[in-house]
Design goal:
This protein is α+β, with helices and mostly antiparallel strands and about 180 residues long. About 25% of the residues lie in helices and about 15% in strands. The protein has six helices and nine strands; from the N terminus they run H-E-H-E-E-H-E-E-H-E-E-H-E-E-H. It has a three-stranded antiparallel β-sheet. A two-stranded antiparallel ribbon has the order 4-5.
Amino acid sequence: MSSVLSGGHKASKVTVICDLDTLTGGNAPARLTDGTPIPAAQARRIALAAGVSPLLLGRGNTPLYLGYRERFASAAQRQVLETLYPSCAVRGCEVPGTLCEVDHVHGWALGRSPTDIDQLALACGWHNRFKHSRPDQIQITKDQDGRYVYRLLPPADARASATGAGPPGNIGPPDSPALDWAA
């Protein structure tokens, strides 16, 4: 067991449970899933040598960080996202968050966005499909509260055009207000 904990056996998976304070220098001991205590310093060494997957627990000890093991957001993640996103993440879209789809910000299928609460946003079905079919027309930023904000961009040929002609029409869902390209 000590060779596994010291990183001697690369194929083993070891789950160490500790709080953030322990990982950042605190003295509270960590533990293995069977309850075996691990000194804080040993937990930090394991974390440095391992691929760390944080597990943030919500109300009722529900995991909010699911990594790549789970494709779809959990009910607990959805509840948190509906609190963070009162409407679609696309600036100017007013579709309520409760009617939106959970979006992997950087694309789960491409291996760039795990099913972790800090890598998810809510997007209406229309904008979610648009984002994945035209990734070059979406600019993704975070606001001061840590929420993702999607901004629609005109098509590349319209951006490159020096004629000053605006982009063609509204690229929002049917019956939605026109989205301002410069917003």
